[in-house]
């Protein structure tokens, strides 16, 4: 009798655990699919995983342990090679698309898709940042900021800042007695460069404070708002409100510093105190649209934070990977070096140092950078949100769901790139890029507005890190 009772208790316990497991495993689907009606029958295959966490655990595991492509490969293996899947990512029901055709459609179709970045990005980047504003407002800001961001005159001025800072940093490295951590040092260089581009030399006295506050803000952009013991930030903060408050305060402190700088710059303009060289802030203050409207302070500050993010983290990582790849492949390094030496030989005696014209002549270095951005995939995906129910490849993307255009899969597609994991700049010699097959900076109306500045930074860093161009 006791034995039967024990087996009964054991069976009930196991059954309860299994039932709880099934309940939790299906909770996200019940929560987000129940109200869809017939639409749920036409959703792509996939797995929305666990409540709150969704698929983020497997996503973080794949990227942390050196096999990021395994995340999508697992969907391929489980649900067939449909290349479109439903999932639960960054706290939202989501659709992941992985082909060039689907990604391009998602990124180009402003009528059916709007911005869909995680809430941490939109809150910390600001209401007037490019990430979250409407398509109409986005087009207006793009028109207004085109000249300060990618105009030839502006880029020529920015190059001077880049050269000075990189050369000074290289001299400091040479005097160091201990080995350096390259990515950390590249981040410091990139931060100095982008801050001088935006605010010029007057930023020097508060550079260290700005870097500290921005680093904290940048960590918040990457954070998952999940307050569970095995997530890193739980160890340092008591609850999620304190966690989010920390990053919000970092943004407020940054805004306060930038506001003071904007106020001072406007006062200089009113009193006709001229500067020797104009920086990005000067240009942002001066530009006006066809109706004579100028950017307000909130718009200017949010644009500064956007370009600080784009010009700091992405440039540092891309430069690091370019150096690593060239070190691993000396034949490619030698070819890039020979190209730069030839440019130096053609340089007029009246000129000294690297020029914007010379950077544009570096065709092989450009291929190195394109291949670096393809293989390293600095951005793994771009985020959109469906404005209405959308049909794509026979499946339905429900209104309000996030859509992740998975850049990484596009750039690693063996149907487009032979041996895609191999770093080979020569693949670009005769390569015809079909629409949507190469999108490191996105596509459509929301193509990264700072791509010219980013490529200038990466090209300049790579060139100046080479001994041949330090003359």
Q: How would you explain this protein's 3D organization?
A:
Mean pLDDT is 80; it is low at 226-241. Helices cover 57% and strands 6% of the residues. The chain folds into 2 domains: 1-29; 48-469, Cytochrome p450. By secondary structure, the protein is α+β, with helices and mostly antiparallel strands. A 5-stranded mixed β-sheet has the order 1-2-7-4-3, with helices on one face. Strands 5-6 form a two-stranded antiparallel sheet. It starts with a helix and ends in a 7-residue tail after the last helix. The chain has 17 helices and 7 strands.
Strand fraction: 5-15%
User: What count of helical segments does DSSP give?
Assistant: 17
> What characteristic shape results from the CA principal axes?
globular
- Number of E-type strands: 7
What would the average pLDDT be, to the nearest integer?
80
For the largest beta-sheet, the strand count, sense and barrel status come to: 5 strands, mixed
CATH superfamily of the largest domain: Cytochrome P450
Helix content: 55-70%
User: How are strands sequenced across the largest beta sheet?
Assistant: 1-2-7-4-3
